[in-house]
Amino acid sequence: MNLHSPQSSFSKPDGEGSVQVQLDPADKIKGAKVFAVYGKGGIGKSTTSSNLSAAFSKLGHKVLQIGCDPKHDSTFTLTKKLMPTVIDVLETVEFHAEELRPEDYMFEGYNGVMCVEAGGPPAGTGCGGYVVGQTVKLLKQHHLLEETDVVIFDVLGDVVCGGFAAPLQHAERALVVAANDFDSIFAMNRIVAAIAAKSKNYDVRLAGVVANRSRETDEIDRFCDKIGMQRLAHFRDVDAIRRSRLKKCTLFEMGDDPEVVAAQDEYLRLAAMLWAGVDPSTAQPMKDRDIFDFLGFE
């Protein structure tokens, strides 16, 4: 991956005035269906990603989940442990990637889901896009993507800088996780804009929104109708989901209470729908002032 300025030889920048981490064509993920999951910080992206990975595996697919957050807490409900990051293990060999083995940074989790924590640079330094790029390079060098059916990037918070938008360069579809509230919908609007910018030069397209931790979806649905995107799934505020994080396990290991089974079925339905293919949303994000005035009520 190389960092290009707007004045560089790269003829199609993602947006006016952009400074973006560009994808080396050799690093393109081929053969697998690739999804990137975004959303406001704390909205439940890692929970959603891990349970979606588990659901894909339940449908018989070989799944790889890549956590893209320096906290490296994306996959612990699958692996039952806090895994070392790619950057951690690269540091141990002074960034001589050829000295690493797959088992140094990739771990098997629930129902065979393979898990990698890309991590990130130390706080205030470096670029998250570089970390994502190095992770994909390692996976390709070790031929770990060749038999993978599904790759899920779980991306930190609602950061839409060029670095942490880097997974969008690999993804086929992007999902946004949001609750039925002002803050997460406001953040979702900006994420939709970032996805639209990346779609100018890459294959990624917006799949839609996953409503999470919400009894109702009226504000999400009103926003979707306004900008032209679809709601893909709805997960209610089920306490078993919160407890699954504390137990360090997936929702599929949380028993058979009716509300748990209903949530499991919704994840399986979402996985089957994504596998079959979701038509891209041609959403037109709103200006900040417009969405500020649009959301809520007097």
TrEMBL record:
It comes from the Bacteria. One of its GO terms (biological process) is photosynthesis, dark reaction. It catalyses: chlorophyllide a + oxidized 2[4Fe-4S]-[ferredoxin] + 2 ADP + 2 phosphate = protochlorophyllide a + reduced 2[4Fe-4S]-[ferredoxin] + 2 ATP + 2 H2O. ATP binds at residues 42-47, 71, 212-213. Residues 1-11 have a biased composition (Polar residues). Its EC number is 1.3.7.7. Pathway: Porphyrin-containing compound metabolism; bacteriochlorophyll biosynthesis (light-independent). Its cofactor is [4Fe-4S] cluster. Binds 1 [4Fe-4S] cluster per dimer. Residues 1-20 are annotated as: Disordered. Belongs to the NifH/BchL/ChlL family. NCBIfam families: DPOR_bchL. Homodimer. Protochlorophyllide reductase is composed of three subunits; BchL, BchN and BchB. This is Light-independent protochlorophyllide reductase iron-sulfur ATP-binding protein. The gene is bchL.
